[in-house]
Amino acid sequence: MENEEKGMRPIWYFVGIILCLMGFVITLSGIYYVIYPNQSHTVLHNIHPDLWWGIIMMISGVIFWWKTKDVTIK
Description:
By secondary structure, this protein is mainly alpha-helical. It contains 2 helices and no strands.
């Protein structure tokens, strides 16, 4: 067996995971509001910003996670 020294993960690894999870939840709520529209309308309700921002958060979270998944700090 090889002796591998375990190091700490950088903060951006965890930021990526959290962004991905929060983006997933926001995207799900955006999909819900596309299917069942809310009765109170805001100015930008027709472009569904929660859906778009959830997708953007998920993509950025995956990028942060992917870039730092193999990085360890000793």
